């Protein structure tokens, strides 16, 4: 039931049958809800505006179809034959690295985390990193040319406050009320006592903090193709160009000495200042310049932002439309809710200004990168996540990531006990797979659809849900069916090999390791 570089033969047969009868050029197949019977579902009759009855009879005649039945107006659910499912297992074990891979050619940019270099990364940044990087891995699996970029706001008021906070700390002076506090400020100040002024402090401190950000993220399994500095936009006059281009389009007006963008013409709730009366540009102006820069380089841009940026989305999209990019390039903005991290009954503050927070580095150090990433992806990005540190450290089936990883390790131990490697079992053994294995096969064969769903809905949490489902199905099968020393030993080892491949593929997509021993 996958979507590899070429559709499976039974998928081709089903699509051709439907296309020939309905006249549809594109036939869409999906997996029906688990509460409904069937392996594949299609709404082709509805799409073609015809009764499903005749199409149902045509589909029932296909050799790969065990049965087909109506599932509501215009929908048909299809149950595959056992041989079609055996063929799915053969493909999973024959080319695991290519399974569910396709050939999209578009260039996609993921801009994620991009935390201001004013303090350590907190656990909320980690959620954005896990969501963005996992989704980027999924795009890569589907053949997209993917880039990851970290945007650095290294100009403006926040850099000024950072410089003053460190300079004053180094000189033993009071930190401004709006300044940054915390032990990290003192540590940096001790290293930068030789700075001549607060501006020099800001430049050096921001580089130190940025390097730390990238080191922590690398330890979290997130690596970037590039770092883009806001200051580059000014040095290349790209921010000036934004005001000039919008003015030429008649979209700039002057008010109170400031230059305003007519963003309300494109759906924003109020017009926005680009250049203040003192001649200084707003952050919005440089963000517009950055998005123009990104649009010149990529077919699709995906921003991973925290929910506190929700008010910022309409103005960026207004600029995007004003520039006409919505016709040529696609902009998606994913907002994620932050993380509630608790120790006992006490909720931990996340304020970088006050210096009281739990850093991402501390969480990784306590529970590990695997558990941290998996837990970050266990809920939809638009739902608040409660991170249970104690559960993440448990080594039993109550810990979701441990349970999934143990499935992989348990399969490896079976092959080790037998004294063979998974590669020693060839796909020809699939001929003996039968009804006892059917439910497991149906579950693992849903992998391509889950992957496509994650990308289509920008929802990588569906992969962690799916991996937990695969683990549950495997453990239930393993605990009830004898694997070794039976006449179906080779076939069942082949099935375990397929399950192992699917778990390893899924874990890799969410940035989690697949251990062979636990």
Describe the structure.
By secondary structure, the chain is an alpha/beta fold. The protein folds into three domains: 9-80, Arginyl tRNA synthetase N-terminal domain (Gyrase A, domain 2), CATH 3.30.1360.70; 107-336, Rossmann fold, CATH 3.40.50; 400-509, Isoleucyl-tRNA Synthetase, Domain 1 (Orthogonal Bundle), CATH 1.10.730. It is built from 20 helices and 15 strands. The protein has helices spanning 9-22, 44-48, 52-60, 82-94, 123-141, 157-170, 183-191, 198-219, 230-235, 238-248, 283-295, 313-322, 360-367, 369-376, 389-393, 400-418, 435-444, 447-456, 461-480, 489-509, and strands at 29-30, 40-42, 65-70, 76-80, 107-112, 145-152, 226-229, 252-255, 258-261, 272-275, 300-306, 330-336, 339-343, 346-347, 385-387. The strands form four sheets. A five-stranded parallel β-sheet has the order 7-6-5-11-12, with helices on both faces. A four-stranded antiparallel β-sheet has the order 1-2-4-3. Strands 8-9-10 form a three-stranded antiparallel β-sheet. Strand 5, helix 5 (123-141) and strand 6 form a beta-alpha-beta unit. Helix 5 (123-141) crosses helix 14, helix 13 (360-367) packs across helix 14 (369-376) and helix 16 (400-418) packs antiparallel against helix 20. Mean pLDDT is 91; it is low at 1-5.
CATH superfamily of the largest domain: HUPs
Strand residue percentage? 5-15%
Q: In the CATH classification, which architecture of the largest domain applies? A: 3-Layer(aba) Sandwich
Flag low-confidence runs: 1-5
Shape: globular
Q: What quaternary form is this? A: single chain
The CATH topology of the largest domain comes to: Rossmann fold
- The percent range for helix content is 40-55%
Distance between the termini: 32 Å
Query: Helices and strands: which structural class?
Result: alpha/beta
């Amino acid at each position: 039931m996958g979507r590899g570089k070429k559709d499976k033969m039974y998928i081709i047969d089903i699509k051709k049958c439907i296309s020939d009868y309905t006249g549809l050029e594109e036939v869409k197949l999906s997996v029906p809800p688990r509460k409904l019977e069937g392996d594949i579902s299609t709404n082709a009759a509805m799409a073609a505006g015809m009764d499903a009855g005749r199409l149902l009879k045509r589909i029932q005649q296909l050799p790969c179809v065990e049965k087909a039945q109506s599932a509501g107006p215009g929908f048909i659910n299809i149950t595959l034959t056992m041989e079609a499912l055996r063929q799915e297992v053969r493909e999973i074990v024959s080319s695991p690295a290519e399974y569910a891979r396709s050939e999209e050619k578009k260039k996609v940019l993921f801009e994620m985390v991009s935390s201001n270099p004013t303090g350590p990364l907190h656990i909320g940044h980690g959620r954005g990193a896990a969501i963005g990087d996992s989704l980027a891995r999924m795009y890569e699996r589907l053949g997209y040319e993917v880039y990851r970029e970290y945007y650095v706001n290294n100009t403006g008021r926040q850099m000024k406050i950072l410089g003053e906070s460190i300079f004053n700390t180094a000189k033993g002076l009071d930190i401004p009320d709006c300044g940054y506090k915390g032990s990290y400020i003192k540590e940096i100040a001790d290293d930068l006592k030789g700075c001549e002024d607060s501006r020099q402090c800001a430049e050096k401190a921001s580089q130190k903090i940025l390097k730390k950000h990238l080191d922590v993220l690398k330890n979290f399994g997130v690596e970037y193709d590039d770092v883009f500095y806001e200051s580059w936009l000014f040095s290349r006059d790209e921010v000036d160009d934004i005001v000039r281009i919008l003015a030429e389009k008649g979209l700039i007006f002057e008010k109170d000495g400031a230059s305003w963008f007519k963003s309300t013409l494109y759906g924003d709730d109020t017009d926005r200042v680009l250049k203040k009366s003192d001649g200084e540009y707003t952050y919005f102006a440089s963000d517009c310049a950055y998005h123009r820069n990104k649009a010149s380089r990529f077919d699709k841009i995906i921003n991973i932002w925290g929910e506190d940026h929700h008010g910022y989305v309409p103005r960026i999209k207004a600029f995007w439309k004003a520039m006409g990019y919505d016709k040529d390039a696609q902009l998606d903005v994913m907002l994620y809710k932050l993380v509630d991290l608790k120790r006992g009954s006490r909720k931990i503050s996340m304020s970088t200004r006050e210096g009281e927070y739990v850093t991402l580095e501390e969480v990784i150090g306590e529970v590990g990168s695997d558990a941290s990433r998996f837990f970050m992806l266990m809920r939809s990005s638009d739902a608040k996540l409660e991170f249970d540190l104690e559960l993440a450290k448990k080594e039993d089936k109550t810990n979701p990531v441990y349970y999934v990883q143990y499935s992989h390790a348990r399969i490896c131990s079976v092959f080790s006990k037998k004294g063979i490697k998974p590669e020693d079992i060839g796909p020809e053994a699939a001929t003996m797979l039968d009804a006892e294995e059917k439910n497991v096969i149906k579950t693992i064969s849903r992998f391509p659809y889950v992957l496509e769903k994650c990308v289509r809905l920008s929802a990588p949490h569906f992969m962690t849900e799916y991996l937990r489902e695969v683990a549950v199905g495997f453990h239930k099968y393993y605990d009830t069916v004898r694997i070794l020393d039976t006449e179906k030993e080779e076939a069942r080892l082949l099935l375990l090999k397929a399950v192992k491949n699917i778990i390893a593929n899924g874990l890799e997509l969410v940035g989690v390791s697949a251990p062979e021993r636990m």
